[in-house]
Amino acid sequence: MANISTSTSFIMLVMVLISSKLMHTCFSSPSCPPGYPEHAIPIYKEDIDMMQFAENLEHLEADFFLWSALGYGLDQVAPWLAMGGPPPIGAQKANLDALTQHIIEEFGYEEVGHLRALKTTVGGFPRPLLDLSAHNFAKLFDQAFGYPLVPPFDPYRDSLSYMLASYVIPYVGLVGYVGINPNIKGYITKRGLKPAKMPLSGLYERAKEVVHPYNHAVAKFTIRISELRNRLAMCGIKDEGIIVPLELGAENRTTTNVLSANYDSLSYRRTPQEILTIVYGTGDEHVPGGFYPHGGNGRIAREFLEKP
Question: Which residues face 89 on adjacent strands?
Fold first, then answer.
């Protein structure tokens, strides 16, 4: 058995070395094609405003994840990316279990990478003022349910509460990226588009679990949040909870909804106007509030504020 084990270990070592050599050859050899047309334009001028608009959402996710996992945010992890913008209101460390904390910490660092990629590619602006306070989340959940929850919802209370709060934010970024994707032309700027991190699978596993002390199941929370986003954006159903009626399920054959998508199981898309009406919580892209007390930054967001 010792000889077999040694032989197996040697073979595995050789395979690792060979694969490493192949990877090095592939990534260092000029014979590897770049993956885009030879004469393609990397960044179109008209791409810049749309990609900079996305930085508003990346800032929101970065500080929400970093603060919740680490107890500090972008100002300590990568201060130059904040570009002098004000620190978030009410951000704090969440009471997370070890596994959730590791995952959220990774998410936070990944958002730092996304911000760096965007700002070094299309430029950027100072981080807008963000409201990540428990009070702001409580108002949003009250708005979703149509009455005040008692006690007020606190996203930092425990891992499940945090997962529900996370359901509020990243999905908005996902449909926003899907919305601008057809309008992006440059291969560099289009490469910057990325899927949002969604806690849907984790929430679906706990769909029937009651969220204490509210006596509502996890699924109901997601449904109410999705309905609120649809009401605020006023553009029909582009958002769904983790449980749906058959007519909204994949091929009208399932009520499960791990991937929220349209009739053809393609991701929904939203315009910048729709995104702003949701994250402001006002239903009006000209009226700031919610996560952005003073509104978003960048030309697209500021023009809506300047031209009510």
Answer: 131
